């Protein structure tokens, strides 16, 4: 058990000590060690109270919540604070101060983007997926989700991009330019093995703008290919899946069957 806890401290807490040198300059809002970490890419969300003579800062690197604890001598520890039983102490604080606000912001971006509904609009579980009309793994995810979608439990919201093949933007334009976008998406997936939907003759400027915006959003969320799947867990934090989820992860994405 002791070795397991040691690995937790080494692997999760990182066991990183940062020398702050002299004490913080007079009037500085944050200790020198925290400012040094900010210069290296840490975004500090908020200071929070932990007691014990420590100053604690909730931050984020990429989309990973990070806690920074500054000792009275100015040194800082980056990682996870544990109690006497080896249990993490500040997960709830990081959830409230970092994960949930970031999730709210990213979710609002997804909601305001242009997406194509797959399923019932009142289905309780919302799953966003960055999709390319030519992507075989997007198609596999679409097929795997059918029981949940058919049961009215899940709605997929497809943010179309055009990156897989030369005619991907034109196929996306055929879907986005259709009178019924959802029906056009279903047509593409139902006939995927026969080549999918017929590409549009051209890609209008307004649809190209949608594809560009969706691709920019996809990249900002950390995805480099399709499908890129985003859901929220029960605490409001984002969960991201690169590519087709493994069979054992489908219920994590889509919920109970």
Write structural notes for this entry:
By secondary structure, the chain is an alpha+beta fold. Helix content is 37%, strand content 21%. The protein contains nine helices and ten strands. Strand 9 (228-232) and strand 10 (238-242) form a beta hairpin. The protein is elongated, with a radius of gyration of 23 Å. It starts with a helix and ends with a helix. Residues 1-28 have low confidence and may be disordered.
Task: Give me the secondary-structure topology.
Elements: H1 2-11, E1 16-18, H2 32-39, E2 43-48, E3 55-61, E4 64-70, E5 76-78, H3 91-112, E6 116-118, E7 125-131, H4 136-144, H5 146-150, E8 154-160, H6 168-176, H7 181-190, H8 205-220, E9 228-232, E10 238-242, H9 250-254
Parallel strand pairs: 7-8
Antiparallel strand pairs: 1-5, 2-3, 3-4, 4-5, 6-8, 7-9, 9-10
Strand order of the largest sheet: 1-5-4-3-2
Largest sheet: 5 strands, antiparallel
Q: Based on the structure, what is the oligomeric state of the protein chains?
A: single chain
Fraction of residues in helices? 25-40%
Coarse shape: elongated
Averaged pLDDT: 86
Which structural category do the helix and sheet elements fall into? alpha+beta
* Strand fraction: 15-25%
What are the low-pLDDT stretches, counting only 5+ consecutive residues below 50?
1-28
The helix count comes to: 9
The tally of beta strands, per DSSP, is: 10
Please write the string of helix (H) and strand (E) elements.
Answer: HEHEEEEHEEHHEHHHEEH
Q: What is the radius of gyration computed over CA atoms, rounded to a whole number of angstroms?
A: 23 Å
Distance between the termini: 36 Å
């Amino acid at each position: 058990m002791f070795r397991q806890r040691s690995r937790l401290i080494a692997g999760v807490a990182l066991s990183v000590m940062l020398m702050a040198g002299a004490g913080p300059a007079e009037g500085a809002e944050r200790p020198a060690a925290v400012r040094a970490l900010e210069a290296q890419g840490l975004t500090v969300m908020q200071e929070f109270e932990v007691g014990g003579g420590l100053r604690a800062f909730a931050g984020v690197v990429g989309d990973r919540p990070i806690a920074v604890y500054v000792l009275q001598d100015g040194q800082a520890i980056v990682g996870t604070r544990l109690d006497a039983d080896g249990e993490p102490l500040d997960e709830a604080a990081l959830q409230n101060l970092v994960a949930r606000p970031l999730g709210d912001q990213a979710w609002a971006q997804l909601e305001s983007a242009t997406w194509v509904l797959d399923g019932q609009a009142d289905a309780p579980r919302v799953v966003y997926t960055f999709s390319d009309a030519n992507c075989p793994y997007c198609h596999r995810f679409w097929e795997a989700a059918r029981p949940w979608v058919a049961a009215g439990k899940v709605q997929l919201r497809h943010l179309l991009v055009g990156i897989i093949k030369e005619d991907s933007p034109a196929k996306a334009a055929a879907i986005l330019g259709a009178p019924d976008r959802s029906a056009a998406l279903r047509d593409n997936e139902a006939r995927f093995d026969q080549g999918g939907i017929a590409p549009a003759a051209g890609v209008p400027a307004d649809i190209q703008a949608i594809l560009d915006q969706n691709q920019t959003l996809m990249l900002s969320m950390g995805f480099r290919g399709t499908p890129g799947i985003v859901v929220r867990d029960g605490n409001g934090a984002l969960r991201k899946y690169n590519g087709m989820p493994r069979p054992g992860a489908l219920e994590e994405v889509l919920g109970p069957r």
